[in-house]
Predict the structure.
Amino acid sequence: MKIKATITFCYQNDKQAEVAFKSLLPDNIGFLESRQNHNSLVCTLKGKSLKTIISTADDLIFSEMLVEKVLEI
């Protein structure tokens, strides 16, 4: 079975979205693809099991929380 999920993070402006995109870029290896769309960061997760998708989403959300702290949102 193939599973695909999309998580979108919305920021106050394009610059914050760019910082988040660049900060999370190393996480894009394997199960995750991301792109910046104006003031949003759109992340697409792909995997063969729900467990993999949930683990990837958890890691992504934790990493994004660190980006928020850096941006002081």
Remarks:
- The CA atoms of residues 25 and 34 lie 8 Å apart.
- The two ends are 38 Å apart (CA to CA).
- The mean pLDDT is 90.
- The chain is about 45% helix and 30% strand.
